[in-house]
Amino acid sequence: MEKRIVFATGNQDKMAEIRMILEDLGMQVYSMKDLGIDTDIVEDGISFEENAEIKARAIARFLPHDIVLADDSGLEIDYLDGAPGIYSARFAGEDTSYDIKNRIFLDKLEGVPDEERAARFVCAIAAVFPNGEVQTVRGTIEGQIAHEIAGENGFGYDPIFYVPEYGCTTAEMDPEEKNKLSHRGNALRAMRAIIEEKYKEDEDENKTV
Description:
alpha+beta
């Protein structure tokens, strides 16, 4: 049977990042949307890790023979006590455009000096394996909230997330550069290492049988 990885998302921007990092893993990578899975998932966890696991388990019920991955990610702004955090996607309403959400945060931090604008992107990824085992990893990228919206390459809060070492927002980076340092890229590489090790162990066991 073909080894498949199925990611619990229908977000094509996110899938482009995921495929770029996992493309040479030797497994086909699909989104749940690719496989026609559409189900309501109640994300009622109290952490990024809990919400990622809730999503992965919900989709794994439909795909018992596949590796199912799910992520929960968001923006933490220190000046706002870590908000929006796990509510990043739902902040100001899920149907509210990120142009509006980004403008709200710029307004909230208007006049706040650079040294108090520290922020980070957080991404937790959970994997449910066919044997029922669950693994979670976390990736982050540190930066600060910009003073204005800039860049068109990213999505979500990318246009207001400024990385001082690079002198630009993550929305101003090209996709390959962003993937090398992004929260999702860091988490995916950590999960990739777990998958590679796990299937190396499986292959070694099969050779000794």
